Each structure stands twice: as structure tokens, then as C-alpha cells.
Amino acid sequence: MQDDSPDTSVLQDFLIDAEVLLTKTQECLLHLELIGNDPDAIDCMVDTLGSLANRALTHDQPEIADFCLQLRLLLEPERDRNRLHGEALDVLSDCLTLLSWQLELIDPQTGLLSLDNQEQLELIGNLTTTLGPEKASRAE
After folding, report:
1. Predicted pLDDT at 6
2. CA angle at residue 134 from 128 to 138, to 5 degrees?
3. Distance between CA 66 and CA 71 in Å, rounded?
4. What Cα–Cα distance (Å) separates residue 136 from each residue in 2, 8, 117, 124?
5. What DSSP letter does each residue of 17-72 carry, written as one string?
6. Which tens digit of pLDDT belongs to each residue from 41-81?
7. In a domain, 125, yes or no
8. Residue ranges making up the domain that contains 59
9. Is residue 89 in a domain?
10. Res 134: pLDDT
């Protein structure tokens, strides 16, 4: 008889990798709080969010992947990087906190994340607004 239960070791590996990547984004954020608009810290944040999105997609976590990709799209353009300070860093911190909570809310047995994406949308909107009016018009 075939066992149809999900492989929890694969899920656990993903969760460990995701926590490592999330920790790296938080280190990038701390770096940005110390040295505003530092290009290396922003590159690190963008690259790490991309890696986390790819890992989430590979492990059937579309909500987490989509949120990471949206954040990455907002932070990636070179011309917008000088706006990543003050309130924008506070909102980015809130986004990373939400990601952390979402990782904790993944059911360890099924791998499912039951989630209303309203908070994600609200934080993306807030980050878009704090990055400037040019971003707000592009996000609509």
C-alpha cells in the first residue's frame, strides 16, 4: 500500500532554508538602518528575497513567493533605491515580520498556509506609498 502522506522532511528543509534567508533579509535591513541607501545591503535584500521566492515556489508556497516577488519588484530598480530610509524601512521591517509569521503558520503536517492576503496587500501598498509617488502610479 502506498503512503499518500506528505513528506514532512522536505517541508522542514524548506522551513529551515526559509528561516535562514529571512534572517539574511533582516541583517540587510539592519545594515540599511545603520547605513541608509547602501547599495550592497539593497542588493543583498533584493537577491535574498528572490532566493526566498524561488524556494517558496519550488515548495508550493505561492503566497510567500508572491509576497517576496512583490517586495523585490519594489526594491529592485536602481533609480528608486535612494528612497529606502525612514518610514520605508519601518514598513519593510513590517513586511519581514509578516513573512516570519507566515512561515510559522505553515501547517507542519500538510504544508498548507491558510492565509488571507489582505495584510500583504496593505503592506505592499504602504511600501509603495513610502517609496514615492512614482511607485504608487506604477503599482496601480
Report:
1. 56
2. 70
3. 9
4. 51, 40, 19, 10
5. HHHHHHHHHHHHHHHHHHSTT-HHHHHHHHHHHHHHHHHHHHTT-HHHHHHHHHHH
6. 999 999 999 999 999 999 999 999 999 999 999 999 877 67
7. yes
8. 8-139
9. yes
10. 57
pLDDT in tens, 5-20: 556 788 999 999 999 9
- Residue 140 C-alpha cell reads as 496601480
φ, ψ of residue 5 in degrees (nearest 5): -70, 145
Model confidence pLDDT, tens digit, residues 88-137: 999 999 999 999 999 999 998 889 998 889 999 999 999 999 987 654 44
CATH code where residue 132 lies? 1.20.120
User: CB of 114 within 8 A of CB of 64?
Assistant: no
pLDDT in the model for residue 132 = 78
Q: Looking at the domain assignment, is residue 3 inside a domain?
A: no
Residues with Cβ within 8 Å of 96's Cβ and at least 6 positions away in sequence, in order, are 22, 25, 26, 29
Domain count, the chain: 1
Distance, first Cα to last Cα, the chain: 52
> Residue 2 domain-assigned?
no
Grid-cell match 519601518, residue found: 90
Question: Are 92 and 100 within 8 A, CB to CB?
Answer: no
